[in-house]
Amino acid sequence: MRKMDEMEISISLKAIKWAWAYTCLFLAMWVIYNYIQTRTFGLAFFLLITQNLVLIAIQSFFKWKLVKDEK
Fold it and tell me: Is the pTM of this model over 0.85?
């Protein structure tokens, strides 16, 4: 397995961002539909919230680690 060059990394990151955006949009529509039908928040809501909490936590951790390593 070879190392990706800058162009491949950029393409991969853009694809990941679009896939994440699609997943969030799909889950949001699912949550709205489910709430209209049942007046409750189901598994889709839990997944949508926790997915974004994990994203924020990991971003914060890596930013903290980067700042810590620069000192």
Answer: no
